[in-house]
Write a structure and sequence with these properties.
136 residues; 51% strand; mainly beta; 11 strands; 4-stranded antiparallel beta sheet
Length: 136
């Protein structure tokens, strides 16, 4: 969040913009992984720009591993709700500019990853990150 304080002539630009980013991954049985990413921003002011529309984007993916995790197949869906946009207005000393732009970033991607000759770790102890992942 940033708190603007600008005043230019009779126009006040003091509405803060709130941004958020939420990322979540879940490990499921039988080699499945599920992840969700959500991010967005509220409307508000920055300098002499008034961002008039809030935006929200949600992406999801599911991944399945095979062959002792050497092969991974991942299906991803981007901008599921088609809500990505870039709307703003700028009013500087009586000059008004408006921009309305909608991105069509919806899509589906399939990726295949294979690790040739994966190396086994020679470390004999337990890594802190491994213990933390098991705890979660």
């Amino acid at each position: 969040m940033s708190k603007p304080w600008m005043q230019l002539g009779d126009n006040r630009y003091g509405k803060p913009i709130y941004s958020y980013n939420i990322q979540n991954s879940i490990s499921l049985p039988k080699g499945f992984y599920f992840s969700t990413n959500m991010r967005g921003q509220s409307c508000g002011d920055m300098h002499t720009n008034r961002f008039s529309a809030s935006w929200f984007v949600m992406d999801m993916s599911v991944c399945k591993t095979f062959l002792d995790k050497a092969l991974a197949i991942k299906l991803t869906a981007t901008d599921i709700f088609n809500t990505r946009n870039n709307d703003w207005s700028m009013n500087t000393y009586g000059i008004l500019m408006n921009k309305y732009q909608s991105y069509d970033r919806r899509g589906i991607a399939l990726s295949v990853q294979y690790q040739f000759q994966p190396q086994k770790s020679k470390y004999k102890g337990k890594a802190a990150s491994e213990a933390e992942m098991n705890r979660l």
